[in-house]
Every structure is written in C-alpha cells, then in structure tokens.
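Quick one:
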Amino acid sequence: MQQIRLSPSGPVLGTLSQSPLRVAEDVSTLDNALVLDGALTDIDADLRAELAAPFEAGHYFSAECDIDVSNSSTNTEALVQVYLQVSYDGGAFSSVHSETHKIGANGTAALRQVQPIRFHAPPTALSSWGTVPAGVTTMTLRAAALLFAGEADQVQVEVTETWIRLTEHSAP
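Output:
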C-alpha cells in the first residue's frame, strides 16, 4: 500500500493498493456554501488537479473527489448527481464519471442533514475518457454537481475542506 500525502511531512490522505506513476491533488475550502439547482455547476473554481504530458498509451487514470452536501428540507429527500470532468489544455470540460447520491431530509427545521460524498472513477484507459487531442500538454480534473430531485433552495455543498485527486497508473 502506498500512502498519499499533500507533502512529505503532511497527514496521510489515503492509500493506494498499487504504486501510481503520478498523482495530482488539490485541496480547497469554499468561501460560501454552493446552493445546487438543476444546472450543472462547478463545485469550486479553485479546486483542480492537473497532470502535464506525456500521457502514455496503455496507462490508466483514476479520479476521486470528496465533498459534503446538506439538505435542510424537513420532508423531501434530495438526489444529487456528482460529476468528475476532464479538460485538455484549458478547453471545455467533459464528464468522465458520474454518480447519484441520496441526501435524506432532516426531519426538523432546526437541523441540517450533512452527508459526506466521496466519489471515485476507477482506473480506466485514457481513451475511455474521450479522444485526447494530439499535442495535448495538460489534463485538468474538476468536480461538478447538480440537483436531480429535491427542493432547489434547500440543498447545498457545504463550506468544508474539499479535495480532488487525479492518478496515473501503469495498470488497472
């Protein structure tokens, strides 16, 4: 197992069962809670993981993100769709992985139900993430979310530490 740290002396953020070739990570804290609605929204413009070329044929890439989402509705559960998206050389972002998470209603107006969400795109060939343009020098990963079902003004990404990780592997 290989431990993942932001710096050599930093706290252990996680472990990998195989040694990665390269890892890019970022940690950010939102300035304000992000209220979710039906539009796909970038979770944090400051939260990006970026790898520089070369991107070897036959290598695999995985991605992870961790966010906290809350639902202040007293009677309506929410479904939140979260996305990992990739961009090449600063171009448009495209989704490479998505998951749906249920956020329970809190049952009382005095409480806000907060649910941590960790989502993960398992190691996969880069070609399955779409066509990589020739001559690409950087690959950037971001997280985005939208409210699939629930009360739009009641569901938000919380102001907590959020992290994102992009890893290159020699095998899946």
